[in-house]
Amino acid sequence: MLGYRFTKYLAHKDLSDTTFDQLFNVFNELLIITGGDVSEALSWLTNIDKQYNITDGKYGMGDFIEDLKNKGFISDKTPDGSFEITAKTEQNIRKNALEEIFGKLKKSGKGEHKTNFTGLGEEPGTDRRNYEFGDLLHQISMTDSLRNAQVNHGLGDFMLTEDDLEVVESEYKTQTSTVLMIDISHSMILYGEDRITPAKKVAMALAELITKKYKKDTLDIIVFGNDAWQIQIKDLPYLQVGPYHTNTIAGLELAMDLLRRRKNKNKQIFMITDGKPTCMKQGIKYYKNSFGLDPKILNKTLNLGAQCRRLGIPITTFMIASDPYLQEFVKEFTTVNNGNAYYSSLQGLGNLVFEDYKRNRKKRY
């Protein structure tokens, strides 16, 4: 018997699908850069296509735009007939950001972090102990208990006593409340470097991670310039830098207010910034000084860092700038808060945020 002879299977390639995927990947990137402006993104994409010949005579940009509409990624049902992205696209952008930044993330159980504390918890652990009054019936390991009874009393006169019972330890689950602060001051796009786009990607990836993997955790997102305000996860693709100074104080005050409402014991603040605090509000007026570290602004910022420490709220600062005097500020701020600080390049920002988030979830503040 000669058996079966197998040949290499070559899947049928649909040129339009391949071209759509290529265009769609670039289109998603352009949406983040343009703050969700579909028309501007398509205009850029058309120029890119003209330069690099992504499409050909069989599938053009008009076909791509029509497919975007048919697949539900964009809509022209606006009052003025202009294009806008849909909720499906917003979620797709967050998903892509998660895969790009946290691509090596592995699935693990139910996706909730375990603490070092054992007792009457939610998830069965691996530790065993003797039965104690008050333990629930479902905690008893029947296999181990029966084995103990055979060893202690023999098979001939089998009996099961309280001393034979073993209980499976359960592990408590932690819930973590995180506030992510994103600097949207003008310096985030100065000096020919786009710093806001990587920051947005990190925020979207973190949001997708928490909503999909750590569903019991909470994430609040704050942007801060001259003032600070909270934004929703769905607003992230549209986020843009403004002509603002850096009011770190307003951001910290809002973050503390949001965390004060959370009932979780584990609370933390992540702050992504590229500069020093240069602004604070006094009544209805702004006090600003962009030249060096102003003691008035600095002392107020440090006081808030110390206050967070007393409340058990660690602050992790991701400084995407390398100026020596900025590093001194971050070092002093981190010391008074007893938090963490990273001087990150834009390329490594996502991995640092992810690793610190995982590490902080293992703590019990």
Distance between the termini: 69 Å
* Number of β-strand runs: 13
The total tally of domains equals: 3
Number of helices: 10
**CATH structural class of the largest domain:** Alpha Beta
List low-pLDDT spans. Answer: 104-123
- Rg to the nearest angstrom? 27 Å
Mean pLDDT: 82
Question: What fraction strand?
Answer: 15-25%
What is the CATH-assigned architecture of the largest domain?
3-Layer(aba) Sandwich
CATH superfamily of the largest domain: von Willebrand factor, type A domain
Helix content: 25-40%
The sequence of SSEs as H and E is HHHEEHEEHEEHEEHEEEHEHEH
Give me the side-by-side strand order of the main sheet: 8-7-6-9-12-13
User: According to CATH, what is the topology of the largest domain?
Assistant: Rossmann fold
Oligomer: single chain
Query: How would a crystallographer describe the biggest sheet?
Result: 6 strands, mixed
General form = flat
Structure characterization notes:
The structure is a single chain. With 365 residues, this protein is an alpha/beta fold. The protein folds into 3 domains: 15-85; 114-172, no CATH class; 176-361, von Willebrand factor, type A domain (Rossmann fold, 3-Layer(aba) Sandwich). It is 40% helix and 19% strand. The protein is built from 10 helices and 13 strands. Helix 8 runs parallel beside helix 9. The longest helix is centred in the first third of the chain and has 19 residues, at 15-33. The model is unreliable at 104-123 (pLDDT under 50).
